[in-house]
């Protein structure tokens, strides 16, 4: 046999997807053998001379890794839609292609975003704990026990405004799911450098039968949202966009949901906002500093905060879709074909 380009894969992708790699006998597959995050030292040892690498969000694709790989590296492919763990400018400088997995996880994350909005509004964290701790008998049915703000419109709250910090694919899919709840108005903020899209917005408002859909500044976003979804990329430019100042402007009955990256929300500020009643509750699938979040974390301790361990895309169907697309991106680049989903560097 002749020379076989090496591909390094940092996680076993399961029985539905691994055959796509195993059947490529023209490639030298180097697979992290354990069912846990790949050791950085293993990656650095195995990357030299590789033509491709397939990573998870748990692996940094940085200058050190790219230098260790050397000039043979043609492609890095991540099994995620987020890519703040990859240094795009270092990849670009070296002419290395970069693949990611948009679209295939949009529905799963939108589903979970709605779930968290409902859970946070209806005090799910607190009441589930109560039952599990055998405290239900001490809190029998009472007229206003455990009441929270209703997500759907009612005769006494006929206007419901949903807000989005970031208005990409997942935000728009979340909005579509909320229309049957009677949402009347939508406000959103986008990256200030992005162009306004009035005709798209008009079409979306019409399609969903909304009274209004407006792009606003973050001030208005905080003030007007009954439920606010944080759905923007991570990284330094979006760090702590939701801080004390922002939270102070929100409605006392409002719900904050974060299903993007923990770094967008200042955890200490949110803890204070919940303790002091600036907002009603929060539903978080991501927390700054994850996965090192323990029971004594400022937000885990808050009864009005539901914290989940980053499971937004965790459906069987979606994870197979993401893994498949990550492999397709890797193989397309190695074969000199167009990648199904790549970032232009
Ligand atoms: C992503 O794809 O970026 C998610 O955070 C992991 O599913």
UniProtKB/TrEMBL annotation:
It comes from the Eukaryota. Belongs to the D-isomer specific 2-hydroxyacid dehydrogenase family. PANTHER family: 2-HYDROXYACID DEHYDROGENASE-RELATED, GLYOXYLATE REDUCTASE_HYDROXYPYRUVATE REDUCTASE. Keywords: Oxidoreductase. GO terms for cellular component: cytosol. It comes from Collybia nuda. Residues 7-341 form the D-isomer specific 2-hydroxyacid dehydrogenase catalytic domain. InterPro entries: D-isomer_2-hydroxyacid_DH, D-isomer_2_OHA_DH_cat_dom, D-isomer_DH_CS, D-isomer_DH_NAD-bd, NAD(P)-bd_dom_sf. SUPFAM superfamilies: Formate/glycerate dehydrogenase catalytic domain-like, NAD(P)-binding Rossmann-fold domains. GO terms for molecular function: glyoxylate reductase (NADPH) activity; hydroxypyruvate reductase [NAD(P)H] activity; NAD binding. This is D-isomer specific 2-hydroxyacid dehydrogenase. Transmembrane segments: none annotated. Residues 114-312 form the D-isomer specific 2-hydroxyacid dehydrogenase NAD-binding domain.
């Amino acid at each position: 046999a002749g020379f076989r380009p090496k591909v390094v894969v940092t996680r076993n992708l399961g029985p539905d997807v691994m055959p796509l790699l195993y059947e490529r006998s023209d490639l030298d597959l180097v697979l992290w053998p354990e069912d846990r995050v790949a050791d950085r030292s293993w990656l650095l040892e195995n990357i030299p001379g590789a033509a491709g690498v397939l990573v998870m969000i748990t692996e940094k694709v940085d200058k050190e890794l790219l230098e260790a790989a050397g000039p043979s590296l043609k492609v890095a492919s991540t099994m995620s839609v987020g890519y703040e763990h990859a240094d795009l400018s270092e990849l670009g400088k070296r002419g290395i292609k970069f693949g990611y997995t948009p679209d295939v996880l949009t529905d799963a994350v939108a589903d979970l975003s709605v779930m968290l909005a409902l859970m946070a509004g209806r005090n799910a964290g607190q009441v589930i704990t109560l039952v599990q701790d055998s405290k239900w008998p001490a809190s029998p049915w009472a007229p206003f026990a455990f009441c929270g703000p209703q997500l759907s419109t009612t005769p006494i709250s006929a206007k419901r405004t949903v807000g989005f910090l970031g208005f990409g694919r997942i935000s728009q899919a979340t909005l579509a799911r909320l229309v049957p709840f009677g949402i009347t108005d939508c406000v959103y903020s986008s990256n200030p450098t992005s162009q306004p899209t009035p005709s798209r917005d008009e079409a979306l408002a019409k399609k969903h039968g909304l009274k209004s859909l407006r792009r606003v500044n973050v001030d208005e976003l905080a003030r007007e949202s009954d439920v606010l979804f944080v759905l923007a990329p991570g990284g330094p430019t979006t760090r702590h966009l939701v801080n004390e100042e922002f939270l102070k402007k929100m409605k006392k009955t409002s719900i904050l949901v974060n299903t993007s990256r923990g770094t967008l929300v200042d955890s200490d500020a949110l803890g204070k906002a919940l303790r002091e009643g600036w907002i009603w509750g929060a539903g978080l699938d991501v927390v700054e500093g994850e996965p090192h979040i323990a029971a004594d974390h400022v937000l885990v301790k808050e009864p009005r905060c539901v914290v989940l361990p980053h499971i937004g895309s965790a459906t069987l169907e979606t994870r197979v879709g993401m893994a498949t697309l990550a492999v397709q991106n890797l193989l397309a680049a190695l074969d000199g074909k167009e990648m199904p989903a790549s970032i232009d560097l």
